Amino acid sequence: MQDLDTLEKDMVAAITGAADMQALEAARVAALGKKGQLTQLMRGLGQMDAEERQTVAPRLNQLKDALNDAVNERRTALNAAELEARLASEKIDVTLPVRPRPAGTIHPVSQVIDELTAVFADMGFEVAEGPDIEDDFHNFTALNIPPEHPARQMHDTFYFPEKDDGERLLLRTHTSPVQIRHMQAHKPPIRIIAPGRTYRCDSDQTHTPMFHQVEGLVIDKSTHMGHLKGCLEEFARSFFEIEDLRMRFRPSYFPFTEPSAELDIGCSYAGGELRIGEGDDWLEILGCGMVNPRVLDHVGIDPDTYQGFAFGMGIDRIAMLKYGIPDLRDMFDADMRWLRHYGFVPLDIPTLAGGLSR
User: Fold this and answer.
1) pLDDT 10s digits, 147-156
2) Which of 193, 182, 137 is nearest to 310 (CA)?
3) What is the CA radius of gyration of the chain?
4) Which CATH architecture has domain 108-342?
């Protein structure tokens, strides 16, 4: 019996001292395997007399249970140690700073210019540009704006000091002069849009001294009002990404178009919140019309042969409408918090196929 006590001590020590699963399995097999020490002793019970077997057999069963308990306990301890080591090697230090965001974002005005360009380019329009500093002819006279028109007054226009000959240059009040310069330099057919900066003496929640406009122009022999309506309806649905957007053309007046109209889109003001494409209210987004024959005369295009349409809208304003920007002046404050909130991912170029405002 003393030999069994010593054997138990040695086998339990081998099991509890196993450094890993492989060593534990080796100790288990040495003790409890088919050729293990305890297995051999239990096979020898058949050679004992009845009295001795009654004494040894219970002791061997106790030893077997003790060894199984020791194996299970050591296996649990090794599994826990392995898990602890794995967690330690794979842990994430939550005290580290987060991965930095890209430092720059695309300004909403730049984004909307890209969106406008994508929509009108799909219709075959080209982008035209012109100078920010204009003369009276290109900014006013060629556009059939008479000398007494309020738009020419000092309170609405930024004028430069007079030259020796009495001429005064000015900061363009709209991008329409780009249309004039393009018609002077190119023969019809013409199909262009002209996005750019414009300047007027005005500043409040929806007006700033410098803002952005885009104007469009189509000149051809057979262009008519139906083409204008179809073009702008397609633009509005694509830009606002609302397929069933309600629209109406309301008669208006502009010196450089005749007839003239304003495009309204359906909206809702319920609860003090503006929602495009919902409700029974209307919101004006742009002005348009057929090019006045006098404008064609000024640029040397025969109005008896050619006619066309033009339209114009404020880029900042439609950006505010589409992206829920409450104050136009915030666009020019260079506040990084505002830019991070309203900005767009760099190099994510808007396309009609991929989506304008992804």
Assistant:
1) 877 767 756 8
2) 193
3) 42
4) 2-Layer Sandwich (3.30)
